[in-house]
Protein: Aminotransferase
Amino acid sequence: MGIKETRITSPAYFVGVDGDNIISFGSGQPDLPPPKDIFKDIATPRLFKYGLIKGEIKLREALSKQYPGANAEDFVITNGASEAIDLVFRSIHEMHGRVKVLLCRPYYYSYPPIVEFAGLEPVYTDLKDGRIDIADFEKKIKHVKAVLINSPSNPTGRVEDTGTLRAIEKITSKLGVYVISDEVYKDLIYERENYLIKGKRVITINSFSKTYSLCGLRVGYIYARDPEIIEGAVNLKVHTSMNTNILGQEMALRAMKVPKSFVTGQTAIWKERRDYIYGGLSAMGFNLWKPEGAFYVLPKIKNSGRVVNDLYYKHKVIVYDGAWFDAPGRIRLSYALELPKIKEGLSRISKYLNGKGSWLR
Amino acid sequence: MGIKETRITSPAYFVGVDGDNIISFGSGQPDLPPPKDIFKDIATPRLFKYGLIKGEIKLREALSKQYPGANAEDFVITNGASEAIDLVFRSIHEMHGRVKVLLCRPYYYSYPPIVEFAGLEPVYTDLKDGRIDIADFEKKIKHVKAVLINSPSNPTGRVEDTGTLRAIEKITSKLGVYVISDEVYKDLIYERENYLIKGKRVITINSFSKTYSLCGLRVGYIYARDPEIIEGAVNLKVHTSMNTNILGQEMALRAMKVPKSFVTGQTAIWKERRDYIYGGLSAMGFNLWKPEGAFYVLPKIKNSGRVVNDLYYKHKVIVYDGAWFDAPGRIRLSYALELPKIKEGLSRISKYLNGKGSWLR
Structure:
């Protein structure tokens, strides 16, 4: 096949791998195009000058209208959700020193390093059937200064019950624990509306990447009612990266102005794909949760490391090892690709699994 | 004047302050427009997808041709020079823990916080007449793991002698000390060519902001021959911000392709402004260095804090307090604005100083 075989040990291996009849269930990136209306008349010098560290006022005003009771001053526009999370944890470190942060396991693979790079200590609560185990959560939360919630979740595709989120609101508020709520998939929920976690110590993280297919522009934001967190993030960002790229902010603002049907139309497409891949994998005998949000499935499989290597080298199919998300014995498939490709990918997986039925049990 | 008077204590006060007949010698941002050729045909989905964490290969290849012996793999494209410096110091912290970093004083005001946020400890060598005092440097360098050099310098406008830079190369190489060389003004030297500091432990920082008037896009880079530094920066960036905005990278690449005359034409404009402001301030009786690079002057003045406040509130002229750069008893003026505005600004300053001649001595 011309591809040199090296043992694949992290998602980094697949970055930039493309073309040549490869079907990728790897990266969590929408294949859909961004709204057309965002491209007009960008050749104005205004879009190439330094801007406010917090972000463009018009964009923050538009965002504030999406959150009940919010003010433009409660937002910081960042280089994607990644920088938003990084700034929040670094701010917490500046204020409180080396404190503990509760993470749910399995997790998005950037969470533990981002917490550690900020000088904080990650501790874990194991998800039960892909959702927060509130009994374990209530035990662990007493010993931490902050908790990171990600619903809809990457990699599980699960959405937390509103009851669970309300219970988390209550106990964290009582204990004065920061809740960092990474809601980058909030517009990709198939089952119900997103429940926005609220509170004095709640820090909402979001981005324009998934909703508007603007991943490469890197525009995200922090929303917090606690001025200390906003100020802490700005105090860092003024030195560590300055304003978020102005052109990206302008395009994000324009994207927010396109009709709602852009987003709802996309959700319909995601749902169709969700149904297809869930049905296909179930029919093959996989044991998996039906995704309620985001665009990931996390089916069980034995020898997941070998599966990732075999599928890539022998069948040109990219899937991620669950172990990279601390979900051993599973693989993660992103279904952010068009139906015919999903179909072809599943057919190759089916071919590969022929005679390996015991791996799915 | 309608402006509410608050004591001005940092450059943050002036961010976004504009218009209304204000003359700003504040922010270090070119007023010149970016090259026209960078705006064509950007409405392609490719420019909105995730990219390599290191940066687009074509941009890194183009950069590698500017540095003798360099390879595309020696570069990481970042959210401006700020993120480049942040990633380098955080990498050094990951590798070596809480080590010391030597900074030259006066300094660009982000340097001390960026070093401290990364968990490192800044120590200082005082510039002598705006340039590195090699005797003091050689004493201090023995006790640090890294040193940050900025030539041409913000805020002094000085360019270090080639002899000094060669001596720094030699001693740091002998001691195994990292040299972080922030060369964002390297294309804005009026007196001679830039001397590129070289070596195994040298880390060059640069950006497209000043040369191509692309400040708001936030595209900069790290260039290092030490693969540990490159790998360290990428290992952080994959989690803390992911790829630098792709559209900005594409525009930076296009900017690099415009004829050399774009840059040389700009330098001629900067030089004309430099001569004008240097002449004007000298004629008023100010004691200042003639800028050799960048676009700043740092004249002496007593009561610099009061001067900053008075000039803004009474004369609508923005200048920065030297104290913000640890250059007490001076003010910093950026001359990144057109000649008629410089002229008007100087005339207002002259009016303000009437009867205050003793402040300049």
Q: What stands out?
A: The domain at 11-33+261-360 of chain B is CATH 3.90.1150.10 (Aspartate Aminotransferase, domain 1). Chain B touches chain A through 51 residues (CB under 8 Å). Chain B has a mean pLDDT of 93. The two ends of chain B are 31 Å apart (CA to CA).
